[in-house]
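Researcher: Quick sanity check before group meeting.
Model: Go ahead. Protein one:
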Amino acid sequence: MKRQNDGETALQAKLLFTEDCSRFKSHHRHTFSDVCVPCCGFRGSFCCFELIPSTPSPEQAALRARLLTAFAESDSVIISTRDGRWAIGYATVTAVLTGDNLPSFQSQAELPSLSDAVSSDPRVWLFVSSSSFTLPYHHSPLHQFFRIDKYKSIDTSLIAVNNLATFAAHIQASASTAPSQDTFFSQRGVDLNQNNTQMTYPALKRLREILIEGKPPRMACHYRSMEALLNDCPNTHSSLLRAVRALVSRCNADQTAAILHCFNSEDVAIVQGLPGTGKTTIITIIVLISVLKNQRVLLSSHTHTAIDNVLIKLLPYRWVVVIPSLADLPTLRIGDYSRLHPSVRQFHLSQRWSGSFDEYVSIMNDSLIVGATVYTSVAQFPRGVVFDRCIIDEAGQITEPSTLQVMLLSHKTLLVGDSMQLPPLVQSNNLIDDGLSESLLSRLEKAFPECAARLCIQYRMNKGIMALTNHLIYNHCLSSASTQLDSAVLTLSLPPSIPNWVATTLLPQHYVVFVNTDSCWGEKNHEIPSAVSSSHQNPFEAKIVENLVTQMVAGGMECADIGVISPYSAQVACLSTCLRKYCKL
């Protein structure tokens, strides 16, 4: 079973208030105590849940900040009981209320029960509107506890099946039978009887030859050097060209070869980027060179974070005039606004679109850079919009059917990732046996190794950590960018009185240390199921981490230079409680 993320689930949501709503006005309000909260206009129920009580447990207190970032206005949620009755209601969040934002919701009534909520008040309330909410209790449901899950309306299996159907059912019409702009369709305003199967995708035939018939991707020799590639860019964008030349001058041989590999590709290219080798950097350069060539780029991945990381690297170049009438890089971001990095929300469609379809088409056509996950509906791309190149980051972690949609929207595809790291997450053993857990990047890399460029010079690890990684995973392909990086060690001033195990663990010459706690297993050292989630925690191991962090901070390390990770969200909450007095988390 897939574990729920604490930040996406509230398992102790107490129902404080509910009333029927039969108003169809799109903008109206309900009053709960002294709080006046907007409603979505559903005919159904309006409810208030308390997610964090006035006297929270340490785990609840650590969870508070994550819940505030997980739930936002307009989010869809699923309401369930805690005794196993799943999805008794689907609802829409109308407000998330804390002591910080309470004044903006207070009405003139000034009733007393919530008026004491100030910034120091730990409580968190979630207000929802639901058109289908059936309370299962014979007695009053008030003050009963419910489970609330953030609902992501993405059925990845359905998207994969739809991609396969599209890949198999559509045809690629010849230039004489189809206009050049009629390259693909969206369901928006298109009747199902209007020859939808005749609409074509720009690279459909070639992709079928590679993916089904096993023909190798085609490579040409358009550019033999970076100088030749940059000289082929128009001189109309001289300031951006100078910036790109400066970036290219800092590239190593592997990175330069990977960029040329991309622009010499006729259809599908692969870049295998080992850890710390600058995958995001070369994607940034490829995007900028594409803009210089007035080529449209679709940036995609299976996570918003991967897309946003590239867009953040592009931010310093946004004020370079690229196209007359545009003052910055013509960028459009599609997806759930609440899940985007704050720095790139300015590019989101909602910040530019007033609702007109013609305006929507204009925005899409004017955007040379479009960021969207592989799960984005094709209906969001107006008919006639074609990309010159699709770049799929972290392609080694995406199932092959999931990548098809964005590849079909583009003339050429660049797959960037590392097939030696995490494969696609597939929970069905039957599907794993059938090969779904192998990504397209991995399959093509094995079949056509000559069509893959590899980044092997890393800028992240010292020689000890790199040696372990090389030995266990990469067959000694990784190399270090500099001797200075090779010899990088912690700079600590540890007192002689610390325990031997701490001194051994933190010894700078010990690059990688495994701390085995099995000998301490017993009453103190054991896993505890979380009280507010389906995750697990181990307070004993959290105390070990706290001890090590304490000694590192006392030894002169900056908190910002210490990273603590865990695969369990409940353990992260436990660690946050232990380490809050030392570091700002």
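Researcher: Fine. The other one?
Model: Protein two, sequence then structure:
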Amino acid sequence: MKKRPFDTFRTVLSGVKIPWLLALVSVVSSFLMSNTVIGSAVITAKVVDSHGNLRMEDLFQYIGLLLGGGLLAALGAFCNNVLSEKINIGVRTKLWKKMLRLPMRYYDAESGESLVSRITVDCNRASAFFGVVIMTVSALYGLYLAARSMLSFSPVLTLWSVCLVPVVAVGAALSGKLVFRAQNRLYQTQADATAYLLERVRNLRLVRTSNMVADETSLGRNQFKVMFHAAVSALLSDNLMASFIALTPVALIIITFIAGGILLSKGQISMGEVIGFYTVSSMASIRISALITIYGDLVGANGVFDKISRILKAEEESSGGIPMELPDESITISHMSFAYGEKKVFEDLSCVIPAGRVTAIIGSNGAGKTTLFKLLERLYEPDSGTIQFGQRDAAEINPVSWRGAFALVSQDRPLISGTIRENITYGCTRKVSEEELEEVARQTGIWDLVRSLPDGFDTRVEVGGGNFSGGQRQCIAIARAVMRNPDYLLLDEATSNLDAQSEKLVSQALANLMRGRTTIMIAHSLSAISHADHILVLDNGRLEAAGTPAEVSAASEVFRNFVKSQSGISGGLKL
């Protein structure tokens, strides 16, 4: 089914709060300004035909119209710009709210950088749409007033001027298509360049340590060249439209003075009427030029609206279901299969994660350990099979309620920009007292750090936590998990990539956190699973063995090899 031209505009702007008072002021101002232009043209014609008999009343009226028109133009432009910015907030908020609710599979297909550019760049064009609508109404009203005034001066000259309309319409349509294609290509190249730059800046350490500075400089230059060629194409199409716009008033001048001169020589029109007609026709040409520009803007913005509307129309993560039931229940995975697109991860996986116990997941890289965590967090849903909470299918439980019972401590130690306080209480729905915050800091080994900082819990955390060590960032992340007081704790290699001192600090904090909770951990060393009383061994997406350490050691060659490879490092594991 062919998409109607303004479907995407409606999708993007529906539900966005429109500041109607600003819109009204902008429209009324533009209407009044058009009337002042017509009024000044009438006075001009009267003055010319008066042969120098200028009345002071007419002079003051003329000056008043000019000043009033300027003030009204400034007021209308200001209100229109503020209107666009207010709508910009609404569109960006709507898009951001939608993006936070999209399923993770959507982000597998779209890069985060390109999605960010939809908010930071594309929303600017989208928010200007309503202002363009107001400009269109104003231009049409001004064109109506001009046409009516032109008819009052000379119907014959008006008829000649109307002959330009078909030429203008065809030219606008052709140039508008060129603008659309060029602008769409430019926006895409800008989004690609933004994605490239964000990715490289985020991985600048890798770039430098890999001695890829020269190569990345060349790649960046290639990105900028592509963007340059797209920008030149957009400029050419814009200039073509601008040239066409500039020819419109020239054509009106030619018609006015050639045809007007003929009529004047025949005594069918006065000099004042010719001047008045020219003044009003100039206003008409400005309005026609505005409509052509608006058409080009709308056509060019259509591609931007299409990208935003595709996100807004995407299916959201399910928000229905029953609340998570307590007390703790065992989690049972039955005949579960899952794949990232064509890449199969699990095929008919079945296992049990017992409540109240510490379950360690062992496996080589690519075995599916992290993917299993993502499925347990309900970031993805199984392609087939079930994850059950007690006797109930997890799919029947509200995802928000389900995640409220879980807390994750991962190896990448994610912190958000803000304060230590905001990072520890992030995701906590209750009000946290200073005493509780201090107690959690003591439990997780960061109290001494907090006390040593001049601003304590209100110390700023840089983007990514760059002003703290790896161990300190991990302990803050653990404090966040403790503050949420979860029923189920997920540890994704939480002590990996830490020095010995930091690992000791983090291990003690984790031991406090695991006490009395159902804990599931991805283990990379024997020391990490020293508290485990239940082990799952994954191998290439299948369950090789499950049970106590002794049972798994007897049944799994993968586990025995794991123990053997770690024995010299961790001193062995008591089975």
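Researcher: One line on it for the slide.
Model: The chain has 19 helices and twelve strands.
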